[in-house]
Amino acid sequence: MSKLIYLDNSATSFPKPDVVYDFMCNFYREHGVNPGRSGFDAAIETGEVVFNTRRLLTELFNGDDPNRLTFSYNATDSLNLILCGLINKGDHVITTNLEHNSVLRPLYHMSIDGLADVSYIPFDENGYVHPDDIKKAIKKNTSAVVVNHCSNVLGTIQPVKEIGRLCREEGLLFIVDGSQSAGAVPVDVEEMGIDAFIFTGHKCLLGPTGIGGSYVRTGIDPKHTRYGGTGVRSAVKTHLFEFPYRLEAGTLNLIGVAGLKAGVEWLKEEGMNKIHEREMTLYRKLRDGLSETENVILYCQDGNESRNPVVSFNVEGFEAGDVGTMLDVDYEIACRTGLHCAPRVHEQLATDKIHGSVRFSIGPFNTEDHIKTAIEAVREIASIKK
């Protein structure tokens, strides 16, 4: 494992900063009790860690009320809560071909159940969705626009500020999947006009798996889709309507919240923009090296527009999965191959017919040597005669 070159950070960041591991271990040893259920000191201290994590993330996204920052298992869990809680029978929803299955599948089930009509906006040759195309798709019954802030396949960061402005002008809900952007690039829910911003903890926020959540702006109140204990006002027969309880039922993943807190604090200390700039320097070296390699096809990698350090490619004559196996077995390079849980991206690129692509995604702990090794490995594979 020590020799592993990890280039699958879009799936989950690895390794985590040491402070994340240390804080999780110490927190659970000393404060692994249930907050909000009892009044003893350890429970109160645990509750303070939870609230401080809400506050840290609310500040990171420029929200105005930490109680409207709620936790869930992951982004998929929160997207289900938000989509099912805000979309009503007969609504028309606009989304894009860039979406992850965490958006596509809930919307598809709403569609086949006759609850909602869904339109899918394609991206351009560089991997970006244009606000004008969204505007053209608006119908009388359109209620919401759902956009992937940053593509997990292409790395392209969408013009959410412009889309958010359009949604405000048209009176539409704007729901943003920030799974790949939270912790990587600045997010300002007010400036971007975002009504519900969904995040996961285990990617760019550098926390553990099993923790995510959403920030929902004041005035937007998703209906309940799950019910249970909250630790307060237990005599009330219905699930509580106020935040954060509105979207949280049962005991939180406390060790996940603790790890997320440590990850966000590390990001703030190191400087999110500084980390991103360094990753993008490595990205440009990787992209340029692969683009100069014969028999390698890159997807939507032209220019230096707004994006994350992600490269999707294929080697002519090889299945993506076979390239991934060779990178793993022969070079100890970990990457992702296939459709990346984003089938409509590959359908538009026509890579679905060849079972997807190979994806390298760079993280805070990658080095120039990692990138040089990855480029050379792909060159050697691409030189093989089949």
Fraction in beta strands: 15-25%
Distance linking N and C termini: 31 Å
What is the helix content? 25-40%
- Which structural class is indicated by helix and strand composition? alpha/beta
Radius of gyration: 21 Å
Q: If classified by CATH, what would the architecture of the largest domain be?
A: 3-Layer(aba) Sandwich
How many separate structural domains?
2
CATH H level, superfamily name of the largest domain: Type I PLP-dependent aspartate aminotransferase-like (Major domain)
Describe this structure in words.
The structure is a single chain. By secondary structure, the chain is α/β, with parallel strands linked by helices. It has 2 domains: 5-16 and 271-382, Aspartate Aminotransferase, domain 1; 18-269, Type I PLP-dependent aspartate aminotransferase-like (Major domain) (Aspartate Aminotransferase, domain 2). Helices cover 38% and strands 15% of the residues. It contains 11 helices and 13 strands. It has helices at 18-31, 41-60, 75-86, 101-112, 131-137, 160-170, 254-270, 272-291, 320-331, 343-349, 368-382, and strands spanning 5-6, 69-72, 91-96, 116-121, 142-148, 173-177, 196-200, 212-216, 296-298, 310-315, 333-334, 336-338, 357-361. The strands form 3 sheets. The chain has a 7-stranded mixed β-sheet with strand order 2-8-7-6-5-3-4, with helices on both faces. A 4-stranded antiparallel β-sheet has the order 9-10-13-12, covered by helices on one side. A two-stranded parallel ribbon has the order 1-11. It is globular, with a radius of gyration of 21 Å. The protein starts with a strand and ends with a helix. The model has no long low-confidence stretch (mean pLDDT 94).
